[in-house]
Design brief:
Number of helices: 5
Strand order of the largest sheet: 1-2-3-4-5-7-6
Distance between the termini: 27 Å
Radius of gyration: 15 Å
Bound molecules: coenzyme A
Helix content: 25-40%
Length: 168
């Protein structure tokens, strides 16, 4: 399915509410991603992306047919991790299973490796998040390990995985 990665715009707020307000998405992300996802949450997120320091993070909307249907973000690390970045993403449920996340992860990584002095991009999906783990391997990431009992979410302790892709 065709998509583009672009900057977020103020007009994306209603689409954000439409696609982000989904427990299946919130359950696979860190606490702080709201559920339900209100228009105020959308405005707060868009404000944060507009004010974001691009030295520290890059936020992109996943756009299908002019509508923002998902999000991809890169977070640049500091101190001794300053040549590493973390990637995070979610996609609206109607668009799952079309290879969009795989392609979006690939594109974000290409962009970062081309333009930034970064040698490693990693992600930490929950171990039971098969779709995210698969999208990462499809995008050229390798599983480096299982972080046992690293997550406490919704009152449950479980494992996460660490996947990384190196600059080639
Ligand atoms: C994870 C997510 C972004 C994947 O988006 P997507 O565009 O559907 O992903 P893709 O289509 O590129 O790839 C998904 C892969 O997982 C596979 N998959 C999907 N569900 C699966 C399951 N339950 N078990 C095993 N594989 C599964 C798909 O078949 C596909 O692999 P294939 O192309 O080799 O067949 C999307 O499901 C999502 O937003 N989930 C909620 C938020 C989230 O988990 N974000 C990531 C946090 S780390």
């Amino acid at each position: 399915m065709e998509f583009t990665l672009r900057k977020w715009a103020g007009e994306d707020a209603p689409a954000l509410v439409k696609y982000a307000s989904n427990k299946k998405i919130a359950d696979n992300l860190r606490d702080g991603f709201p559920h339900p996802y209100t228009i105020n949450d959308a405005w707060a997120f868009l404000q944060a992306t507009l004010n974001a320091d691009e030295a520290k993070s890059l936020y992109r909307a996943i756009d299908v047919g002019g509508e923002a249907v998902g999000s991809a973000g890169i977070f640049f690390k500091d101190n001794v991790y300053r040549k590493s970045a973390e990637i995070g993403y979610w996609l609206g449920e109607p668009f799952w299973g079309n290879g969009i996340a795989t392609a979006a992860i690939r594109l974000m990584c290409e962009e970062v490796f081309k333009r930034r002095d970064i040698v490693r991009i990693y992600a930490e999906p929950y171990a039971h998040n098969a779709a995210s783990c698969r999208a990462l391997t499809n995008a050229g990431f390798e599983l480096e390990g299982v972080l046992r009992q690293s997550i406490y979410k919704n009152g449950v302790i479980f494992d996460s995985c660490i996947y990384a892709k190196l600059r080639t």
